[in-house]
Amino acid sequence: MNPLHLNDILSAARTIAGQPVLLKLETAQPTGAFKLRGALNALAHLPPDAKGVTCCSTGNHGRAVAYAARARGLKAVVCMSALVPQTKVDGIRALGAEVRIIGRSQDDALAESRRLAAENGLVEISPFDDEHVIAGQGTIGLELLQDAPELDTILVPLSGGGLAAGVALAAKAINPAIRVIGLSMDRGAAMHASIEAGRPVEVEEVESLADSLGGGIGLDNRLSFALCRDLLDDVILVSEAEIYRAMQALYFEERLVAEGACVVGIAALMAGKLPRPKGPIATIITGRNVDMTVFTRVITGQDVTLGDYRIEGRSYAA
User: Are 224 and 135 contacting, i.e. CB atoms less than 8 angstroms apart?
Assistant: First the structure.
């Protein structure tokens, strides 16, 4: 899908950035998120005698794996923590996958997925630390540079790093000078903490508007950590309040329903946290599988409570 020019959106971002802003709308994917690219590529490389697949997920990867497995006639078991919104759990079950809710972190869900793979003969599909998943997500970088070869900067939501690694690999292979910046929330950003530490580390997972960006990267991470460490030009964190305002802006200006994880690039632009680019900027709107009760509170300017953290409501003003 071609990126769309933001003609009238985010006047603050236009003024600060001084360059056109482009959107890559992965919300139009059949499962509502970019994760389908990596899942389809991974399942295309399964051994012919595979009995089924399993994965851990914060929601969108599980939905993509469930969709891809159903298309192949394979069993799928998706392991998630209790922090995953119910709407994402329901979406995965609707695609015929078995769902297991394990613990309160993605590390707990990962351990269960690996147990199933070892004991039940299922093939584990990592949401980010898999060469085929990374390659599938990287097709976004190829499409962006095909449609907008003049791009100066790509803003990529950053969690386990499969998307960021794939996009950076593809984009920098075409244009080594292009900047690829990872964006995450400032509470529980595992890849950011790991890059800062110089090795994969654990972080406390907390509820966030950007729930899709939660979870660890795995202490035994083989691929995505090193790729993000070496290829990302910067990692920028945004607050829950900044995510809240960016969700409002995308809805009111472009009428787009998007998860909090999708708008971290817009949030950074609006908050003036990005270095001034020399050319057009693209940001990836990664998914639409948002809890609509929370989304409605955001766009109507109400307070939002995330565990013991409260975001003060604020009406949208262009």
Answer: no
